[in-house]
Amino acid sequence: MDLGLKDKKALVVGASRGLGAAIARTLALEGATVFAAARSVDKIEAWIAELPADARGRVSAVRLDTGDLAQVDAACETLLAQGGVDILVNNTGGPPPGVAAEVKRDAWITQFQGMAANLFHLTQRLLPPMRERKWGRVITVASSGIEQPIPNLALSNGIRSAVLGWSKTLAAEVAGDGITVNMVLPGRIKTERLGQLDKANAERQNVSVEKIAEASRAAIPAGRYGTPQEFANVVAFLAGEPASYVTGSKIRIDGGATRSV
Predict the structure, then answer these.
(1) Which residues contact 72 (CB under 8 A, 6 or more apart)?
(2) Which family does it belong to (predicted)?
């Protein structure tokens, strides 16, 4: 299937590793020009060097910390000066684990800025060129925790649920301009972040990391963790022409782990 991504420009946030890197690589391999953004430019440049030559030339590394509003605005100015982007993939690293009864107010405010408020601002600034062209894609990476809260991840469950409300509201506002707005919900995808969470849960329960991972895999109908590439394939479809009538949706990529309908 031709996703129609050639000559499209995409900004992928959080693209230094894990899901963000997989998404950025996949979009580039599908023919898009990709601005891969993260705090660690060195990590982005490392995976860019591993791409085939034609795709390598379509990816640029951009330094961007979503927790720093000045950096968000600077990235917007640079991109808007080049005509903006057609595809925006909002993706932030997960916040520290913690239970709802113990997370402090300052942590809520700090994490909300980087995971929600500044992403709302970034999207708002990049929307006008999409509206002018009558074509655009806004895809936000969240977590299955917005449908089925994950123990010990109070910050993620709460903040990403707020992002869900924003995404659904925005989808209705811009659908008439040819812009789709969707969320993708990863389940247990094998990334560094997942390893960190398994380790935190193992320490909290005083058991081995392997025991935590074994129990997690047993709870997934597919019987395994997903791969970043499997996740990125879904995002690439949503970013393309064939998904033009999919908007206001939240799509699970979790091997069937979320049991609600």
Answers:
(1) 64, 66, 118, 121, 122
(2) Belongs to the short-chain dehydrogenases/reductases (SDR) family.
